[in-house]
Amino acid sequence: MTKGQLCDKIAKEITKFYVSTLKYGPKEAKCYIVEDMVIVRFKGHLLPVEKEILRFANKSTAIELVKNIRKVIHQITTKKLSKIIEKNIGIPVISCHSDISTVTGERLEIFVLKENLEKKLNGG
Questions:
Q1: Cβ 70 vs Cβ 100: under 8 Å
Q2: List of residues 6+ apart from 11 with CB closer than 8 A
Q3: pTM for this prediction
């Protein structure tokens, strides 16, 4: 499997996971493999409740609430997301990091791997 095919498969599987778990998915998902990291970028992924919080609450309070919602979602989903990555690449995930822009709704999930996947894919 090529790097592009692997990235496409990972992005689709993670999107499917979010749709089945949260009943809401991103407008677009793209995956990047950079050395020992798998980075998944989601566009348009604010949940309807997050949009409402940002629209009606005090700006700084709203941003803090949305970030806290995402921290909890991250804690709940990290193990399952890591298993999706590990199943597709065959390398253990050693840590996972996430952040969201409350302005654009764009979100990043970064999975740090035990080995350099990019090097492996390039035959190294």
A1: yes
A2: 29, 30, 31, 40
A3: 0.89
100 token code pair = 């969201």
Residue range 3-121, CATH number: 3.30.980
- Both tokens assigned to 56: 């009606």
SS3 sequence of 20-53: HHHCCCCCEEEEEEECCEEEEEEECCCCHHHHHH
Tokens of 65: 């609430």
Task: Encode pLDDT of 63-111 as tens digits.
Answer: 999 999 999 999 999 999 999 999 999 999 999 999 999 888 899 999 9
Domain ranges (residues) in the chain:
3-121
